[in-house]
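Consider the following input, taken from an annotated entry for Nucleoside hydrolase (Amycolatopsis acidicola).
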Amino acid sequence: MPVKLIIDTDPGVDDAFAISLAALSEDVELLGVTSVFGNVGLEATTRNALRVLELCGRSDVPVAAGAARPLVHPQPARAGHVHGSDGLSGRSAALPEPRREIEPGGAIGLFVSLLEAADEPVTIAPIGPLTNIAVLLAAYPRLKEKIGRIVLMGGGVNRGNSTSAAEFNIWSDPEAARRVLVEEDVPCVMVPLDLTHQCAVDTAWLAKLAAASPIGAALDALTPDYLASYRRSLGWDGIVLHDAVAVAEAISPGILRTEPHPVEVDCSFGPGRGATLVDQRRPEMRGEGEGAVAPSTVQVAVATDVDGLGEFVLGRLTR
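Applying the prediction step yields:
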């Protein structure tokens, strides 16, 4: 049975790969895509989402614009230095012009209509800041029963990227992230930097993608700025497909190995702001009682078959 999926996104090069992965997978019913501020501003992320879906021949998928800023405090910075000024290495205009208009009811309106209409649990894959998801859960708690799980890309166990402690998506709106990861009881899978960096792909992988189809060639053409950034970060020629790793788990539950851990989000204004604090102590050491699990437990992705995951993503993108 196809996975019913909604993607919440801030495209972004890795978001473009993630959207394409879902859009081209025959075992996915992509119900909708919602945009959020993040790598670039909301107008650009929304336009990029529409164009990526058009590239994949999926103008049937509705797209709605969501939050343009965080819940409380201004976004510290965007990620144009990684993704390019338009989010797609300055090449968004090379993608086809979308035929579909943005949904008039906005992201929350689209979430509500899709979840209300769903006759089985829906997976939500937030791969940008968690602002839209926090608003949805706060405003429509009755719809939580329609959500099978939330599979999000964000956070870090032992590292950050925007700061030494914080990953970009969480750092962009820590208050929203805390609402989703700590205060709510919807099943969550957190796919952190620690794992996504293990799943980096090299230029040989990108060459296979580019040679396989016009869609693959178009996705590869979006990577120059991203590749240059990760050449500095990794120390070799490759890119990290953060968001595609999370969407792979949303599509194929269990492709990532997870462990249950309580997670806290640092919402202070010190050097740890935006950090995800993953409590890896044994339950007995957390004062929860023998064998108990904290109510705010999150399934944290910790491992995968790296080569197998790379082949999974490449295979779906080159069908």
